[in-house]
Amino acid sequence: MGIAAEASQLNCAANMERDLMQDSLQQPLAIAQESGLVDFEPCIRSGVWYDIGARENMEDEHVLIDDLGEYLGPQTLLTTPRSYYGVFDGHDGKNAAQFVKEKLLKYIVTDVAFPIAIEEAVQHAFLETDAAFAEACSANKSLSSGTTAITVLILGREIFVANAGDCRAVLCRKGKAIEMSRDHKPNVERSRIEALGGFIDDGYLNGYLSVARALGNFHIEGLKGHNCPLSAEPEVRRAVLTEDDEFMIIGCDGFWDVFSNENAVAFARRKLQQHNDPEQCSHDLVDEALRRNTSDNLTVVVVCFQKNPPPRLFPRFIPRRHLHSDK
Which residues cross the membrane (predicted)? Predict the structure, then answer.
């Protein structure tokens, strides 16, 4: 086949893939309109900051797409917000993190369950991405590595958080920290791990990994595969955004090692009240994590759901009752 013919075939394949993704994304708008979820539309703004921290190499990856319609092409430019964010914390190199960053969204929006069953589509996509990376590693051993992954998909007012590993997403709802994901530490999943023949040594899965779920890691014998203890299946949580929802923090474990959920939300809220800039807020959070001597790579994404900065909250005033006695 000539170079021109081969290039033409590649372009056709790329166009077909993009058309399929666009068609898949058209359907959630109609579903949202029918269910009344478009009464309140979040104003999506986001920013990210990252730093190598105390490590020799930067193995984190991230993705920020405020407008999926604009990202995928003009045919999907509709009024309902549709956004996608992800943080991917690599280990043993960053190849797995890069691969998941580039492939996962395609598998989500082209899955047969999308958009009728979003949670199912996302779960399928994680596993399909994991299988595709296994094939890539079989063809090229130098890619061998692993990554945790957390993604946030926003369709209208519905938000879907999928997590495999120990990255974390925390929602700020009227000043309160709402945890939207669960850290998959080995001790948390001990029963599942031991049922599959795995073990935990000093908090590490099979004495090697500090997480019980991750993508990749096919190069580690006995860790990944059929009836093996390391799982790529994510936990998916759904929420409906309201006018009380102010912003979300998505970060790798290096950030959450030195911030509690409540502390991170309070710190970010103060910064957003000062400058109302999600990227600057991400920068502020990373700088503070470095000041607190985190020992890992750092990636922090802040997604705001309102145009205005978070309002100042005042304690509810309860008038004191005065008892008078008659003389």
Answer: none
Give the pLDDT band (50/70/90) at residue 322: low
> In what side-by-side order are the strands of the sheet with 245-251?
45-51, 298-304, 245-251, 168-173, 176-179
Q: Which residues contact 258 (CB under 8 A, 6 or more apart)?
A: 289, 292, 293, 294
- Assess contact for 38 and 32: CB atoms under 8 A: yes
Q: In this model, does residue 319 exceed pLDDT 60?
A: no
Instruction: Give strand ranges (E) for 20-59.
Output: 45-51
Domains located in the chain, CATH noted: 17-304 (3.60.40.10)
CA distances from 3 to 6, 13, 16 (A): 5, 15, 20
> Which is more confident, 273 or 68?
273
CA distance 5 to 93: 36
Are 237 and 170 contacting, i.e. CB atoms less than 8 angstroms apart? no
Nearest to 153 by CA among 278, 23, 15, 28: 28
* Omega prior to 115 cis, within 30 of 0: yes
| pLDDT tens-digit series, residues 171-219 | 999 999 999 999 999 999 999 999 999 999 999 999 999 999 999 999 9
Contact call for residues 249 and 87 (beta carbons, < 8 A): no
50: closest CA among 297, 308, 309, 326?
A: 297
Alpha helices in 140-249 (DSSP H): 190-195
Contact 271, 280 (CB under 8 A): yes
How far, CA to CA in Å, does 52 sit from each of 26, 48, 65, 284, 290?
38, 14, 23, 15, 10
Q: Tell me the two tokens of residue 249.
A: 């923090």
The answer to whether residues 168 and 237 touch, using CB atoms and an 8 Å cutoff, is no
pTM comes to 0.84
Grade residue 57 by pLDDT with cuts at 50, 70 and 90: very high
Q: What is the mean pLDDT of residues 265-286?
A: 98
